[in-house]
Write a structure and sequence with these properties.
The complex is a heterodimer of chains A (209) and B (248).
Chain A: H1 2-9, H2 15-24, H3 32-39, H4 43-56, E1 64-69, E2 72-77, H5 82-89, H6 99-111, H7 116-123, H8 128-136, E3 140-145, E4 154-158, H9 160-166, H10 177-180, H11 183-198
Helix pairs in contact in A: 2-4, 6-8
Chain B: E1 17-19, E2 24-26, H1 27-35, H2 46-56, H3 68-90, H4 93-96, H5 108-134, H6 156-167, H7 185-196, E3 201-202, H8 203-206, H9 212-227, E4 232-234, E5 243-245
The chains are: A mainly alpha (209), B mainly alpha (248).
Chain lengths: 209, 248
C-alpha cells in the first residue's frame, strides 16, 4: 500500500491505479483488450493488477466492488449499500420483469438466436408484446435474420445489458438446462403424457372429435 | 357493483389497478381492451393477474372490509371468463373438431417433446429470475465523461462508414415482374354494367375468359360499384361463389 502511495506521489501510477482510473470513467464494462490499449500495460501485469483491485474492492470491505461482467470489468456499488444509493439518487429500481418476460429471455438464451415465431412455439402462447417490452428495455436485440424462413424473420438474441442484469460474464456463464431441470421431473412429464395418450379420450359433445 | 343498498363501502373492483408487461392501468380497462380485441388474451398472464389482485386485496376478517364479498365475486366472475376465453383461444380446434376436416392435434411424442422443452424453459426462467434479482442492486459507475471538443479522435474509416449509413438510400424493389397494366377500372365498370342489364351474373362467368390482371381489376370495379350502391354483391359463404345483382 505504501509503495503504491509512493508511486502515485512520484507521478508514476502503478498498473492497478491506471486500470482503476480507466474503469472509473466508464459506465460500461471495459474489456481486457480495451484496458490494455488504454493503459499500455502488458497483459500479465494487467491481470495481476485486476486481481489486486478485486481484493481491494471486495464486497466485505468496500462500498465499491469490481465486477467481471458482460465480457469486461466494471466498477459498481456494493449491493449491501443499495438502500443508501437509492435514497441518494431519489429513484426507485425499475419494475421487476414478469414471469412471461423471464420465460422469453430463457427461450432466447437457451434456444436462441430465435425468431418471434420460435419463441411463441416454445412457450405455446403469443409473446410478441413481451418481446417488444424486452426490446425496449434493451435486454433483447434483433441480431440478423433467419434466411431459411419465408420473409427472413428477425432473429432475437440477448444483449450486453442482459448479461449485465444477470451478472454474467458471457452466455457460457449460465448453467446448462440439463443442470437446472431435474431428470425425475422430466420423467414425470413423459409418464403423464404417455399415460394420457394410452387412456381413451372422451369425445366432446358426443361427437367423433 | 350496485346493490340494493347502493355502492358498497370500501374498495371496489373499479379501484383495482394492475401493472403488467402488456398493460398498465385499471383492471376494468384491461377487460374492455380484451373484449374489443385490442389486446390479445394470449398475452395476459392470468396467474400474475390473480396474484396482483390477492396482493391488492388481502383477506380481511368479516365485517372489516365492507363490499369485499361483492368485489371478490366480481373479480372471480371476470377472471373465470378470462380463463375460458384464453382456454378457447389456446385450443382453437376444440370447437371445429366436431366438423368434418378437423386437423389432428400434435402426436403424443410431439406433445411430450414440447412439454419437456417448455419445462426446461420454465426452470431456466426461474433460475434467471433469481439471478437477475440477485444482481439488481449493483449500480455501475456513472462517470461517463463528455468528449472534449477538438480532442475526440475519430478514425476516417469510422466516419466514412457512419456517413455511408446516414446517406444510404434503401434500394427500391423492382416492379419488372408485374407487367404493364393494360386495362382500367372504368372499362370493366362499363363491362359489368352491360352484363347486369340481362340480370344477375356470376363473377366466375364474368371473368371466365380474362387473365389474372383483368380479373383483379374486374373485382375492384365490382367492389367500387357495390360501394356506390349500383350493384349488390352476394356471397353465401366465405370463398363461396360471388354473384353480382342489379340494385333492388
Amino acid at each position: 500500500m505504501s509503495v503504491r502511495r509512493d508511486n502515485l506521489e512520484q507521478g508514476t501510477p502503478d498498473a492497478a491505479a491506471l486500470i482503476e482510473a480507466v474503469l472509473l470513467v466508464s459506465p460500461r464494462p471495459v474489456t481486457l483488450p480495451a484496458l490494455l490499449s488504454a493503459t499500455a500495460l502488458p497483459e500479465s501485469e494487467a491481470r495481476a493488477a485486476l486481481e489486486a483491485l478485486g481484493a481491494r474492492y471486495s464486497s466485505e470491505s468496500s462500498g465499491i466492488v469490481l465486477r467481471e461482467v458482460a465480457g469486461g470489468y466494471q466498477l459498481a456499488t456494493n449491493p449491501s449499500c443499495e438502500a443508501a444509493v437509492e435514497r441518494f439518487r431519489e429513484e426507485a429500481r425499475p419494475a421487476p420483469l414478469s414471469g412471461a418476460a423471464h420465460e422469453v429471455l430463457s427461450c432466447v438464451l437457451y434456444l436462441g438466436p430465435l425468431t418471434r415465431a420460435g419463441v411463441n412455439a416454445a412457450r405455446g402462447v403469443n409473446s410478441d408484446a413481451v418481446v417488444r417490452n424486452l426490446l425496449d428495455r434493451n435486454l433483447l436485440i434483433e441480431a440478423g435474420r433467419d434466411q431459411t424462413k419465408p420473409g427472413a424473420p428477425a432473429l432475437l438474441d440477448v444483449t450486453e445489458d442482459f448479461l449485465l442484469a444477470a451478472g454474467a460474464r458471457s452466455r457460457d456463464d449460465f448453467p446448462a438446462l440439463a443442470e437446472i431441470v431435474d431428470e425425475a421431473e422430466i420423467s414425470r412429464v413423459r409418464e403423464r403424457v404417455s399415460g394420457a395418450a394410452e387412456r381413451p379420450v372422451e369425445a366432446p359433445h358426443g361427437g367423433d372429435g | 357493483m350496485n346493490t340494493e343498498k347502493g355502492e358498497p363501502k370500501g374498495r371496489t373492483l373499479a379501484s383495482f389497478t394492475i401493472e403488467l408487461d402488456v398493460y398498465s392501468g385499471p383492471y376494468e380497462g384491461l377487460l374492455a381492451l380484451i373484449l374489443k380485441d385490442e389486446l390479445e388474451i394470449f398475452e395476459v398472464p392470468l396467474r400474475e393477474l390473480v396474484s396482483l389482485y390477492r396482493n391488492a386485496n388481502p383477506p380481511a376478517p368479516p365485517g372489516e372490509a365492507p363490499g369485499a364479498l361483492e368485489r371478490d365475486t366480481d373479480f372471480v366472475d371476470s377472471a373465470t371468463s378470462l380463463i375460458l376465453l384464453k382456454g378457447r383461444a389456446l385450443a382453437p380446434y376444440s370447437a371445429e373438431a366436431e366438423g368434418e376436416d378437423a386437423e389432428e392435434g400434435p402426436s403424443p411424442e410431439d406433445l411430450e417433446e414440447r412439454l419437456v422443452t417448455y419445462l426446461k424453459i420454465k426452470r431456466g426462467a426461474e433460475a434467471l429470475r433469481e439471478r437477475i434479482s440477485g444482481n439488481a442492486a449493483y449500480y455501475p459507475s456513472v462517470h461517463a465523461l463528455h468528449p472534449r471538443p477538438g480532442r475526440l479522435r475519430i478514425s476516417p474509416n469510422r466516419l466514412a462508414t457512419a456517413a455511408r449509413r446516414a446517406f444510404l438510400r434503401t434500394a427500391e424493389p423492382g416492379v419488372g415482374h408485374l407487367g404493364t397494366v393494360t386495362v382500367t377500372v372504368g372499362e370493366l365498370v362499363a363491362l359489368i354494367r352491360s352484363a347486369l342489364v340481362r340480370g344477375p351474373v356470376s363473377f366466375e362467368d364474368l371473368v371466365r375468359d380474362m387473365d389474372r390482371l383483368r380479373s383483379a381489376v374486374a373485382f375492384a370495379a365490382a367492389l367500387s360499384l357495390a360501394a356506390q350502391g349500383r350493384l349488390t354483391l352476394t356471397q353465401p359463404e366465405p370463398f363461396g361463389p360471388l354473384t353480382l345483382e342489379p340494385p333492388k
